[in-house]
């Protein structure tokens, strides 16, 4: 039996959280979050992590010679194909 | 020489990247410079069409446009520069072999990402890492499940996340979680795009991302506690 959203414990709420998010439930209006700072703080921390990831992971540049390696490999493959 | 071997050409939008940072940097062959935005998409479609028709220079331009995103994806997935370069090379070799099969049903960048993800997954399997099939990778075992937070919050992460700690935490994630986290939070793909790439439901993508963030939170808290003890 599903626990009552108005009276559920933090454990019950957090056990359901992945499913609620997966189902696209608007958590802002969830009764448990209206009264629970612990779970609200948990969600804020997860957003902080997501935001940090966006800001902290720059797009990386491969070494300049990588294209030469790829070009050589392509030519080798094309050579094999022509021989066949 | 025909412009393309294929009946259906990609639309302008289908080749436009979510983030076109590849335009900057140093391409191996000259890419059209100073072109107006309105010309950009049609030029991209032309480049793709030419590459599909076997034009070597056009393929080199595709590499210039997409190398950074593909390399970054590989690097985040394996956490090793040499391996990431090898995988980027393999991804573009696969692209060269398969570019004729791209028919514009999805964005080219999404298609290339999926191809690259498959290259990374195959590599991890060959290495004998405990990587499951893609479907299983989307469903990490309960043993790998993130911790939860039933007590009062003892430590706020706000303002205290540093890049190294986050990179380490991401590198330590189980493969399935890492895949979702990198695609959504680092690469900026939407859940519907990820679901299409990984053959899973949007709900599955959302819930796995939540679990991945929980694991990262646990790891970052642990890292902060260790710092505090020093």
* Top-tier CATH class of the largest domain in chain B: Mainly Alpha
The percentage helix of chain A is 55-70%
Largest sheet of chain B: none
Q: Bin the strand percentage of chain B.
A: under 5%
Shape of chain A: elongated
Which regions of chain B are unreliable across 5 or more consecutive residues at pLDDT < 50?
1-39, 130-144, 151-155
Sequence of secondary-structure elements of chain B: HHHHHHHHHH
Beginning-to-end CA distance, first to last residue of chain A: 66 Å
Question: Which word captures the global form of chain B?
Answer: elongated
CATH architecture of the largest domain in chain B: Orthogonal Bundle
How many beta-strand segments of chain A? 0
What structural class do the secondary elements of chain B suggest?
mainly alpha
Look at the structure and give the mean pLDDT of chain B: 73
Radius of gyration of chain A: 25 Å
Q: Which runs of chain A of at least 5 residues are low in confidence (pLDDT < 50)?
A: none
Q: What's the oligomerization state?
A: heterodimer
Order of helices and strands of chain A: HHHH
The portion of residues assigned to helices of chain B is: 55-70%
Which key terms come to mind for this protein?
heterodimer, A: 84 residues, mainly alpha, 4 helices, B: 230 residues, Rna Polymerase Sigma Factor, Chain: A, Arc Repressor Mutant, subunit A, 10 helices, elongated
